[in-house]
TrEMBL record:
Name listed for the protein in its UniProt record: Protein COFACTOR ASSEMBLY OF COMPLEX C SUBUNIT B CCB4, chloroplastic
Residues making up the signal peptide according to the UniProt record: none
PANTHER family: PROTEIN COFACTOR ASSEMBLY OF COMPLEX C SUBUNIT B CCB4, CHLOROPLASTIC (PTHR34943:SF2), PTHR34943
Annotated GO CC locations: chloroplast
GO BP of this protein: cytochrome b6f complex assembly
Length: 296
């Protein structure tokens, strides 16, 4: 009872006191206004643009065969309608150029046949579905023995990152005419059970890699089967779908093989460019340190 009495008696005094301070203090007035506006804004619903679902696009994608054959149905129905109208209306079956009805029927027949032909084309020509393939070959993991632990860990980090985030299934790093790393799926050699060894000296002299290293720009072969330079990369699985050739400065090249046609996005290509610059700095630093130690 006492607590309730104190609360009831204290509340009017506090409200009166606050109202007095509100009139006398501009700062307190500003704080109260901000709190009031924030409390009122919290109850206001979001009035921005809302995402809308395209029901027509969803229905078309879910009924692809029906949509493709729809022009055939429309054209056939129009053709039957013209023939029935011609038979019921009592017009002579022979087309008369002087008759407006004959000219309209001929135009309708042309449109109906056009619809039927369009439907046949839609059913015949379909976009090819692109799906990943299983690389044909053997697993390979070859690392140059002359590398430091730091360089090896960075190379393995690059492989793990690229193979996890992209469609990469094969990776080869050649630097200073030496195969620094060959990992992933590789072509099986004639000996059987072993991966085909990369001939670094021959690879650097090939037209494809030499052009990439000379220009210093990345080369992306989105559909490897369409390029004659496929024969210059015999160590990659025979069914490799896409390849990225990333130069490592003027001394090396990074070769990435993917399992999907056009599987590497523009973001992947930009990321590989930064990875190439990082690998170039690491391998160049290791080469300089090795040269200094040999001189000492």
């Amino acid at each position: 009872m006492e607590a309730g009495t104190i609360f009831r008696t204290a509340t009017p005094w506090n409200l009166k006191h606050l109202s007095t301070l509100h009139r006398s203090s501009p700062t307190l007035r500003l704080i109260i206004n901000i709190k009031a506006s924030s409390s009122s804004d919290s109850h206001v619903r979001y009035k921005g643009p809302k995402s809308r679902r395209d029901w027509v696009a969803d229905w078309v994608s879910n009924n692809d065969d029906t949509v493709r054959s729809l022009p055939i149905y429309i054209g056939g129905a129009a053709l039957l309608a013209v023939l029935c109208n011609r038979a019921v209306s009592g017009i002579a079956p022979v087309a008369d150029a002087s008759s407006s009805q004959s000219r309209a029927d001929l135009l309708t027949l042309g449109l109906a046949v056009t619809n039927i032909l369009a439907g046949l084309v839609w059913l015949t020509i379909r976009p090819k579905s692109i799906s990943p393939v299983n690389p044909l070959g053997v697993e390979c993991r070859r690392i140059s023995s002359g590398l430091s632990e730091t360089a090896i860990s960075e190379l393995l980090w690059v492989w793990k990152s690229v193979s996890t985030a992209t469609c990469c299934r094969s990776l080869v790093v050649v630097y200073d005419c030496c195969v620094v790393l060959q990992i992933g799926v590789a072509t099986e050699s004639s000996n059987g059970g072993e991966a085909l060894v990369v001939d670094a000296a021959k690879l650097i002299q090939q037209l494809l890699c030499r052009g990439v290293m000379k220009t210093g720009a990345q080369s992306y072969l989105a559909n490897l089967s369409l390029y004659p330079g496929r024969s210059e990369l015999p160590f990659l699985p025979p069914n490799t779908q896409a390849v990225i050739l990333q130069p490592l400065g003027k001394k090396g090249i990074l070769i990435i093989g993917g399992d999907t046609i056009r599987g590497f996005t523009s973001s992947d290509q930009a990321w590989v460019t930064f990875l190439g610059e990082k690998l170039d700095a690491t391998l160049e630093n290791f080469t300089i340190q090795s040269t200094v130690q040999n001189r000492v």
